[in-house]
Amino acid sequence: MEKMEMKQETPPVLKVLEALKQACRDLEANPSLDSDDSNSSAIKALLELETESDTILSKDPNLSTLSQLLARLKTLVQTLQSSRARHGLASFLTRRVSTHSLSRVAAAIGSEIQAWIDRESVGALTRALRDPFEDEDEDELARLLTQFEDRVSVGFDRELQDLVLKSKLFSSLESILCNPSSSSRRIREHSAMAIAGLIRFNKDVFVGQVLMGPTIKALVTMASARSIGVLCSLIRSIKSPLVDEIESNGQIPKIMGLLSSQDLAIRVLAFDCVLEIGYFGRKEAIDAMLEEDLIRKLVELQRSELDGDLIDLGQFENEDGDDGDEDNREMSVGGVQVKKTERRRRREEKGFLESHPFASCVARFAVQLEVGEGLRQRERRAFKQQILVRVREASVSDAEAATIVAEVLWGSSP
């Protein structure tokens, strides 16, 4: 019963708080009370909250600062209203000072209201994750997780971080992610995305829990498009240390296996993961991928109906009919032409890859090794030679081998 009440009451409360926070933004941006602004919804909403502060805010010691700020707001509004009835330099200066103070107080009230919202939201999410929930509560839990993901995506906030640490929210999210018997795949995926959000929020604080815990194994084992997408995001955020952990825990063969999934979305994201590992991985990780016959798998993907050759993208661009004229126009603006041409090339390459996700995938992997952060120069050269040898072994014809070898040599330095 308590949980059902929470599901019914919490959203309206948060909706009111969000409206009050927006009122603070409006007042901060336009603190003047000229004309009829004194009757504006922003002023009225905040003054109504101040009127009810004795009954609403006095029960929570965390809201004492908010109560004081609302009282200060009421005083400033009264000062501004009284100064409008008078003329002269003193009244003008009073209005200027009070207007500036009103803007600052509105900003402070907005921050306090956001802190209030965060306490309510984190508390509700923590309780929902730790208490057993029925199937009918899944939508509510998904909503709370999505709300949390959105909040941490805004950027770092020390008070929010303190709330997360005190509530041990990361451990609760990890427990849900790693326990398939207690929650649906949908909730586990949302938990994984919340973990990735926390890493982006403050990598220095939360990365250790990812590296030392079972998160990575759980993501690979789940083997869904969202879980592999989160894994790619974590690799981009944590870089080589996470790739080292993936390799040492024996997860690379499982990731290579996903390249053969029946689900196209999983194959595409598994390839993205391979590219990320190629960029950040050290020699041991690259060796592990090659030992799993990665190049043969990539050749087969490149041979599929979603293939294509980026080396021929110049011909692909000219098929639009307008590109030649655009090049001529850009030639007339000197050095700017190079930048415009490069931007256009990247846009068209991105569009091509969206419809041909495995185009030139062997060469793209080779380029990641070439420009990445994990390998020494001599290791790059040695792996490039290995790739060329394995391409010839995996190709079904001399023509196919020649095309892929040319792409590898064209796409990376000698």
TrEMBL record:
It comes from Parasponia andersonii. The lineage of its organism: Eukaryota, Viridiplantae, Streptophyta, Embryophyta, Tracheophyta. Gene3D superfamilies: Leucine-rich Repeat Variant. Residues 315-342 are annotated as: Disordered. It comes from the Eukaryota. Residues 317-328 have a biased composition (Acidic residues). This is Coatomer beta subunit.
